[in-house]
Write a structure and sequence with these properties.
Number of helices: 5
Distance between the termini: 68 Å
Number of strands: 8
Helix content: 40-55%
Number of domains: 1
Radius of gyration: 23 Å
């Protein structure tokens, strides 16, 4: 008789949060609804692309899009051909610069509040990040931390739509679309924070595990 043994790889345990501070309830795991956020990001992208595209059209006129499309007239028809080289390079630049600046702005506000910031890239998740691991963050601080990139980049990039250099204006348009769409997770956190009591604390154990500590003396 041949005895066969199979080694079962143990499941990865969820990292434990610290003990609750005095006056706080037991921690609750905070999770992002990944599928919901992905679905929400689609109409957000379309709305943002149309909105900023309309603004760019109003400021620059239709000729600005000549940097994106090659126009060919054949008989009674006009054919628009997307130039992938002229579009692809500004898009890649806009993507990486926007993501990097987005996270640097998160980190800058964290540092303003005296938190130690860790920057990094998680290839498995396909994400850049700025995080204050192993530190309590107050609910009131997380509002500016979460909204700083969305607001700052919008303020900085929107005026560039009026620059009379099509490549700059179009790149600014891409930055605005990428940044706004990519802020869907930040907007979700802010929406959740609005429903939490004042004084709530959040604690990042690692990139995937965030815990919420709510105060015990909450008035109903």
């Amino acid at each position: 008789m041949v005895e066969m043994k199979f080694a079962v790889r143990p499941e990865r345990e969820t990292p434990s949060p610290p003990a609750p501070p005095a006056g706080y309830d037991e921690p609750k795991l905070f999770e992002y609804p990944t599928l919901v956020l992905l679905l929400v990001s689609v109409p957000l992208f379309l709305l943002t692309a149309y909105g900023f595209g309309w603004l760019l059209w109003q400021i620059q006129g239709p000729e600005v899009f000549a940097t994106l499309f090659a126009v060919t007239e054949t008989g009674d028809s006009t054919v628009l051909v997307l130039d992938m080289i002229d579009v692809g390079l500004p898009f890649v630049v806009a993507l990486f610069v926007t993501v990097a600046v987005h996270e640097l702005l998160h980190g800058a506000v964290m540092r303003y509040y005296g938190q130690d910031v860790t920057y990094g890239v998680n290839l498995a998740m396909g994400a850049f990040y700025a995080a204050a691991f192993g530190q309590f963050q107050r609910r009131e601080q997380l509002f500016p931390i979460g909204l700083a990139p969305l607001v700052s980049i919008a303020i900085g990039a929107t005026p560039l739509l009026a620059v009379p250099v099509p490549s700059i204006a179009v790149t600014a348009y891409m930055v605005l679309v990428i940044n706004t769409t990519g802020a869907v997770g930040d907007l979700y956190v802010v929406w959740c924070l609005r429903r939490m009591p004042e004084g709530t604390l959040m604690y990042d154990v690692d990139l995937r595990h965030m815990y919420v500590f709510e105060p015990l003396d909450v008035e109903v």
